[in-house]
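Hi V.,

Quick status before I head out on leave. The structure for the redesign project is tokenized and pasted below; the design run finished overnight.
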């Protein structure tokens, strides 16, 4: 290929264009593969459509049988003693005759799951209990119709699927079950999916939630485990998918199948359409093979042309790239060999000239860079120290508790420092107190507090000027021990073997107010502190002083706000209590004075009316005093809880009956699920919680409406809610409604009285039981208050209900 050497780069690029033709063939191959993918997807969609049709037909069959059962599950099946009524046998016989789905039998159960009647009649199971069957127990407990998985028929033990519907009396209470079953060995269930076989190897199957084949177009698969157990859905959510899966036919035989699966809506079953993958994708496979051969030929041709051009174009470019990378890494000694007079040869010569100029420039830069580094290094270190300490100060909300960390960082940032101390002025004792205890061994306890004229920290605090002390170096006659002792004495901190050789100490001053002093100590004579260290430490000390002063001002502001809030609450409390006491007392006084008048003779009806008003106002006065006493107990921590078994629904009914006479414009609804669990609680306190929430709902619902008390059972807690249709609570105040003396302040709530203690007492009582209380509200629509109590199951539910 020597004929390419004299040619220019443009001619060589033309050869690369020829290579693009090969790429075009590759693109055509990709389009062909897209056609294969579309064919494959079409095949998968067809299987999914068949599965959907089969699922729809099975759903219709099961739903029809379920509706027939629910239609016939009337109170007429059972008499008042819970036994089969006289007409029950005819109802079961008619249902059996009119419904083709129930090929096994139809049964009538009582509320305990005992078989009362069967059609056709089977004396072997009448009188036996089948409550242990999961779908029977679920129907009795939830009151919902159920479709079981594969179970053994009582008596015959044949595999069946059962449908159960609850029988309820006129009050909606469950009094029995009407159930129907179909035998899986009977071909009638498989008739639902007959005609939905796909190809030679395909088949359609109905699978229950445990992966058992209930019905199949291949009879050999019925009542066997499904070949694809990993595809069985784990939830009742509506599911449909199509995928390829490895089917385990037996221990030694496996095959890959295309599986389309659609779950049923009536039960947790699913319908699967399966077919061997080789048969399903036979057309797509042939098309893919042809495209593959065409693509391989195109790629080989493209590789051949690429090899031809690489030798003459890519190789020189690689050499230039490698040389550029060496230059980028600092190797400026390498040169390129130039060959030819084309653009690549010219580029190589220019590259060699550039590296020569770079070598000259690098030598010049190295000369003045050494001087610059020496000047910048010290300043950079000072700035780094300032930045680090600034970060610590800005990220620390409580600077007083972080002084230890600050001193530690300052010591770490000064390579000459071996230890440090920070003293703050204590105006009560007129001394300097060492706040952080960052000192090596030899620091004595009495040195944690200094007089103002004691040591370097005291001297610097009084003068307000920084100090740098350095022990002079050793002379020919030996070290200057007197100087060493002088510096150590002034440093006032180290004893024994420690000899302080250098000290820097700065005042902590902000706005002409000195709050303390900061000192660093060096014990190495070869590393004394110098003037730049003193300037840097002073800058750090100024920042610390600002932070300490800001914290002091913040604490003073918080204390002032707390005093203002306490004064406001006190005034508000006195005003509220005065008003709440004055209102009932005025009514009592007025009506009592009226009754005592001797110049008027009142009839008995009027006297009774006045006395009832006096009695009602006395109750309000007593309730206010009780709330004040309860609030005092809560505040003092003297709240007592006496727990015992409690039926919450009974307490709710009792609380409603107490409030109803005073709230005739309201409709009270108590809604608790059947067999609500018994919990351990103080019944008097729980009734007090309900009473406070109901009174609150009545008070803030001036237009009347519905007030609903609802109970719900969770895993470890029961939840009780009280909902009203009142004025509601603004979002910004909903977190404060449980505070003492707090009342929502707006135009709609000012008419309502109250001390603001009811909800705070309710919260204290709920939390004393180990629960929590919260509220949700929409202004203008009403509020709902929730509270939870720990769930403690008690075995003898019936006996407890009789006691309550």
């Amino acid at each position: 290929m020597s004929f390419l050497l004299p040619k220019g780069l443009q001619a060589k690029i033309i050869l690369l264009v020829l290579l693009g033709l090969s790429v075009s063939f590759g693109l055509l191959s990709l389009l062909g593969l897209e056609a294969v993918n579309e064919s494959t997807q079409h095949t998968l969609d067809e299987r999914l459509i068949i599965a959907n049709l089969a699922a729809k037909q099975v759903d219709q069959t099961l739903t029809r049988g379920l509706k027939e059962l629910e239609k016939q599950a009337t109170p007429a099946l059972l008499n008042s003693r819970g036994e089969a009524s006289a007409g029950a046998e005819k109802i079961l016989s008619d249902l059996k005759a009119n419904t083709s789905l129930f090929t096994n039998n139809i049964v009538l159960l009582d509320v305990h799951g005992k078989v009362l009647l069967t059609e056709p009649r089977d004396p072997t199971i009448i009188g036996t209990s089948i409550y242990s069957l999961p779908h029977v127990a679920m129907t009795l407990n939830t009151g919902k119709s159920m479709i079981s998985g594969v179970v053994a028929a009582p008596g015959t033990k044949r595999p069946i699927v059962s449908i159960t519907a609850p029988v309820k009396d006129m009050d909606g209470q469950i009094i029995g079950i009407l159930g129907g079953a179909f035998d899986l060995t009977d071909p009638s269930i498989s008739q639902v999916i007959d005609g939905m076989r796909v190809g030679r190897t395909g088949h359609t199957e109905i699978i229950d939630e445990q992966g058992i084949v209930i019905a199949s177009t291949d009879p050999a698969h019925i009542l066997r485990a499904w070949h694809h157990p990993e595809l069985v859905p784990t939830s009742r959510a509506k599911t449909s998918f199509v995928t390829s899966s490895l089917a385990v036919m037996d221990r030694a035989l496996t095959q890959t199948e295309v599986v389309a699966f659609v779950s049923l809506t009536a039960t947790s079953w699913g319908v699967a359409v399966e077919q061997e993958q080789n048969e399903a994708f036979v057309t797509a496979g042939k098309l893919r093979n042809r495209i593959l051969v065409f693509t391989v030929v195109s790629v080989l041709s493209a590789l051949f042309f690429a090899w031809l051009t690489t030798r003459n174009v890519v190789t020189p470019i690689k050499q230039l790239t490698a040389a550029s990378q060496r230059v980028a890494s600092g190797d400026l000694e390498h040169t390129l060999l130039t060959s030819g007079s084309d653009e690549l040869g010219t580029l190589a010569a220019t590259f060699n000239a550039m590296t020569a100029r770079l070598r000259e420039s690098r030598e010049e830069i190295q000369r003045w860079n050494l001087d610059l580094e020496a000047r910048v290094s010290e300043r950079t270190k000072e700035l780094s120290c300032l930045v680090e300490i600034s970060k610590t100060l800005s990220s620390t909300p409580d600077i007083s508790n972080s002084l230890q960390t600050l001193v530690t960082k300052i010591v770490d940032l000064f390579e000459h420092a071996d230890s440090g101390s920070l003293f703050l002025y204590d105006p009560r004792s007129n001394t300097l107190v060492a706040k952080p205890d960052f000192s090596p061994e030899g620091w004595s306890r009495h040195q944690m507090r200094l007089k103002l004229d004691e040591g370097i920290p005291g001297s610097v605090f009084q003068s307000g000027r920084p100090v740098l002390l350095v022990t002079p170096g050793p002379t020919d006659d030996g070290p200057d021990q007197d100087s060493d002792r002088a510096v150590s004495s002034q440093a006032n901190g180290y004893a024994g073997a420690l000899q302080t050789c250098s000290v820097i100490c700065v005042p902590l001053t902000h706005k002409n107010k000195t709050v303390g002093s900061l000192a660093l100590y060096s014990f190495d004579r070869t590393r004394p502190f110098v003037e730049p260290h003193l300037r840097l430490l002073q800058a750090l000390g100024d920042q610390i002083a600002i932070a300490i002063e800001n914290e002091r001002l913040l604490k003073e502001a918080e204390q002032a706000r707390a005093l203002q809030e306490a004064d406001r609450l006190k005034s508000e409390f006195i005003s509220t209590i005065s008003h709440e006491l004055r209102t009932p007392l005025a009514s009592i006084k007025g009506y009592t004075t009226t009754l005592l008048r001797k110049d008027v003779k009142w009839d008995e009806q009027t006297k009774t009316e006045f006395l009832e008003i006096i009695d009602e106002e006395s109750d309000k006065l007593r309730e206010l005093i009780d709330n004040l006493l309860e609030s005092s107990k809560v505040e003092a921590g003297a709240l007592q809880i006496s727990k015992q078994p409690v039926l919450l629904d009974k307490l709710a009914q009792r609380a409603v009956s107490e409030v109803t006479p005073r709230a005739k414009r309201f409709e009270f609804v108590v809604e608790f699920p059947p067999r609500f669990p018994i919990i351990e609680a103080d019944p008097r306190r729980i009734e007090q919680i309900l009473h406070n929430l109901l009174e609150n709902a009545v008070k803030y619902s001036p237009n009347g409406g519905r007030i609903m008390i609802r109970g719900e059972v969770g895993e470890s807690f029961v939840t009780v809610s009280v909902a009203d249709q009142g004025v509601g609570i603004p979002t910004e105040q909903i977190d404060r409604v449980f505070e003492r003396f707090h009342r929502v302040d707006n135009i709609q709530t000012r008419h309502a009285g109250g001390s603001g203690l009811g909800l705070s007492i309710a919260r204290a009582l709920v939390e004393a039981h180990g629960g929590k209380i919260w509220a949700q509200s929409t202004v203008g629509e009403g509020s709902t208050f929730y509270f939870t109590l720990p769930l403690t199951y008690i075995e003898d539910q019936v006996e407890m209900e009789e006691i309550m």
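Above is the designed sequence. The two ends are 107 Å apart (CA to CA).

G. will cover questions while I'm gone.

Best,
W.
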